[in-house]
Design goal:
Layout (H helix, E strand, L loop, with lengths): L9 H9 L1 H9 L16 E2 L10 E13 L8 E13 H8 L6 H5 L2 E11 L11 H15 L10 H9 L7 E2 L10 E2 L5 E3 L7 E3 L17 H25 L9 E6 L10 H21 L5 E5 L3 H9 L13 E3 L3 H8 L15 E7 L5 E7 L19 H11 E2 L5 E2 H11 L7 H11 L3
Parallel strand pairs: 2-9, 9-10
Antiparallel strand pairs: 1-11, 2-3, 3-4, 5-6, 7-8, 10-13, 11-12, 12-13, 14-15
């Protein structure tokens, strides 16, 4: 291990790459070979036109987490900070201003409204109240954070209410007791609310223990992974929470005027991965209400900025003559077979992402030439497949492509403006705000 601030130079790294052990490993590794019959050649398809007009509003959701050192008398004490920002963009107003160039910056800023929810969570060597470990302090704080977040003060529903509605969709089964590191041998089923371990000590169990994030928590050392899992469940639970609030306000019939853009894939990874299937089930239920009222589907997108799929899209867009394979407004929907053959090699019969994704990948080159890797959700049982690239399954597919044409930004390569705005809010926590939802509800209730 190096000293703090000591980094390996170029020559040692080059020496490692050129060693016989590394070269021998590479010689044994699988290498993709393009087939002579051309079956592996990617043929992008032209994007269909939108079946309807673009939405008037876009809600973007993005989060961040950080870990900071604190002084409490114990070495290595840390606190985790998580924040999730939601930004409301008025697309209709942006389009109106765009017709009057140059746009007044003050007026343009009025088309965005942001609020954040944030919380501090105990990290290593931070023990609260009468707990006996930082791990148990973290468990209680995670439960209390969801209990404390009220997105809409008029409604009063807590983020915990939505989480526990999703918990009701979790397959029944027992898990290792959260107190097993302290010697408890019970296997427990985690219900809603606060319950007790069945052992003689009757210590508290929290509904959020079902996420099993505490299993990733270290009493000593860094907990960036655990805090990252907290952030991702916050982001996705917030999306469902907002939709459920609209349902209570009887506004799902106005969802044809709305779109939601999430940072990252439509998936839940790690210990809370079961939440993905629960979210998918709830989105399908909510979408059935929207479809009955509007004959349209919810417009939800996840945007991937980095990762294997982004790298692959970059590679397959490069033509041998130096040009590009994807022209403007063309797309590709990778199937399960394609993903396993070309992107993440696998011979498994289980569908790619079966346990983690509630949507599928879309490669799209916008009208301006930006490459966007997006995820579109499964909103009914027919859509819940990777066996076909038939876009007729997805009612809003044309609208998705046109919306991406509209939202793409020139500020950063292959970026979309709502997430830039949301990340700027999430990166530097501002306040615990609830204005976005209230403003949006008022706007949706107005008659056109």
């Amino acid at each position: 291990m190096p000293y703090e601030g000591e980094f390996a130079g170029y020559r040692p790294l080059q020496r490692i790459v050129e060693t016989e052990r590394v070269q021998g490993l590479l010689r044994k590794s699988r290498v993709f070979q393009a087939s002579a019959d051309g079956l592996n050649v990617v043929v992008p398809k032209p994007a269909p036109p939108p079946g309807h007009g673009l939405p008037s509003y876009v809600v973007a959701i993005d989060g961040s987490n950080a870990e900071v050192d604190v002084r409490n008398g114990y070495p290595g004490a840390k606190v985790g900070y998580c924040t999730v920002a939601s930004v409301l963009l008025n697309l209709a107003e942006m389009a109106r201003l765009d017709q009057q160039r140059p746009v007044d910056p003050l007026e343009f800023r009025k088309t965005e409204e942001a609020s954040t929810v944030d919380a501090a969570l105990p990290g290593s060597n931070v023990v609260t109240r009468n707990h006996t470990s930082a791990r148990d302090s973290f468990r209680e704080s995670l439960y209390e954070v969801l209990q404390d977040v009220v997105v809409d003060q008029e409604d009063g529903a807590r983020l915990l209410d939505t989480y526990e509605a999703l918990l009701a969709h979790k397959p029944q089964g027992r898990q290792e007791c959260p107190y097993s590191p302290e010697g408890c041998t019970e296997r427990v089923e985690i219900p809603a609310g606060v319950s007790s371990c069945p052992c003689g000590k009757k210590r508290p169990l929290y509904s959020t223990d079902a996420l099993r994030i505490h299993e990733n928590f270290r009493d000593a050392g860094t907990n960036g992974e655990a805090f990252g899992e907290v952030r991702q469940i916050w982001e996705h639970t917030l999306l469902v929470h907002v939709l459920r609030l609209f349902e209570k306000k009887q506004l799902l019939g106005r969802m044809d005027r709305m779109a939601f853009v999430m940072d990252g894939p439509l998936a839940v990874f790690g210990h809370p991965a079961w939440l993905s299937a629960a979210i998918s089930r709830e989105l399908k239920r909510l979408n059935a209400v929207v479809r009955t009222a509007t004959n349209r589907d919810l417009l939800i997108l996840g945007i991937e900025k980095t990762g294997t799929f982004v790298m692959h899209f970059d590679e397959i867009d490069k033509a041998e003559d130096g040009g590009t394979n994807f022209s403007s407004r063309t797309f590709m929907l990778p199937t399960d077979k394609y993903i396993k053959d070309r992107i993440i090699f696998s011979t498994s019969t289980k569908r790619y992402g079966m346990d983690t994704y509630f949507g599928r990948k879309l490669f799209y080159k916008t009208a301006s030439g930006a490459r966007i890797v997006a995820d579109i959700p499964f909103l009914d049982e027919r859509q819940d497949t990777l066996d076909t690239d038939d876009t007729s399954l997805y009612r809003e597919f044309g609208s998705v492509c046109t919306l991406l044409d509209t939202l793409v930004s020139s500020r950063y390569p292959n970026s979309v403006s709502p997430l830039i705005a949301a990340h700027s809010q999430a990166a530097i926590p501002l306040r615990l705000g609830t204005k976005v939802l209230q403003q949006l509800a008022k706007a949706l209730m107005r008659q056109d």
